[in-house]
Amino acid sequence: MDTPSHDVIVIGAGPAGLTAATEAARAGLKCLCLDKLAPGGVLINLGELHDFDEIFSGTQMASLMTDDAVVAGVEIGFGEVVKLSGDGPWTVETAEGERHTARAVVVATGLHKGRLGLPNEDQFEGRGISHCAACDGPLYTGLPIVVAGAEGWAALEAQELVGLGSKVTVVGSPPAEKPEGITFIEGRIVGLEGSDGLQSIVVESGTVRNTIPASAVFVYVGQSPAAEFVPESLARDATGHIVLDKEGRTSSPTAFAAGDVRAGGRQYLTDAIADGQRAAKAVVAALSKTS
């Protein structure tokens, strides 16, 4: 086989992927970071971030992380990965017809958009159902807004919506410390109602069902890992998330995963960054053994 074009390919340029790529490049590895959209992943859709001493917007953080990656020597590529094959070296194929090879690979593709799993859900997509508070929140200024999900990215989205909606309600398990301006309902959404766009939702809490006004629902439940291209040789759990050991390794010694696509991952920015750092260290250690 021809010599691989890169030491490592990182699939996904969200916070976990950019961190993994940057740290791998800083360690002297030739690294390609691929994403089907602009670098930043979920960060592009987030408003203010409060995870650090300074307050950044999601787009600012995405720009800073991308700049760090480029300065470190990461090659940023664009393409939707449709197939991952091999077992070190690995071959990555994109929908655009490109083919890349590497000694190691990191999968950091995150999650697909959430779904409520309701039969009429599609008819409200873009007419009340949304997945991005920074993008669509202003459309519902002064109207009742609901967030489905209470942790991780959902919590950030809910805080982004406070001050826009006439009332912001989160449907999901409430956190120990409830942010101001948000009403929490423990339960799940079981119905969507409205003749011209969304007007209300039905929430089930135990055996009780209540209808509450809602002009928009931002969905952060029912998300699935974006890993359809991953070969069956890499172990996954019952929900399709990639299974890792404590060092961040998959069932293959030269394949790794980071961020929300991995089993047990939490949807928090600091966790994604830590995952990326761990994956990069594991890549460096693995490739040093095969050099």
Explain what this protein looks like in three dimensions.
- The chain is 21% helix and 27% strand.
- It contains 5 helices and 17 strands.
- Strand 13 and strand 14 form a beta hairpin.
- Helix 1 runs parallel beside helix 2 and helix 1 runs parallel beside helix 5.
- The radius of gyration is 20 Å and the shape is elongated.
- The chain starts with 5 loop residues before the first strand and ends with a helix.
Summarize the structure.
With 291 residues, this protein is an alpha/beta fold.
Give the overall shape, derived from the CA principal axes. Answer: elongated
What letter string, H or E per element, gives the SSE order?
A: EHEEEHEEEEEHEHEEEEEEEH
Mean pLDDT: 90
Helix fraction by DSSP (H/I, runs of at least 4): 10-25%
Number of strands: 17
Main sheet specs = 7 strands, mixed
- How large, in whole angstroms, is the Cα Rg? 20 Å
Total DSSP helices:
5
Proportion of strand residues? 25-35%
Secondary structure class reads: alpha/beta
Could you give the distance between the termini? 16 Å
Poorly predicted segments:
none
Task: Based on the model shown, name its key terms.
single chain; 291 residues; alpha/beta; five-stranded parallel β-sheet; 5 helices; 17 strands; elongated
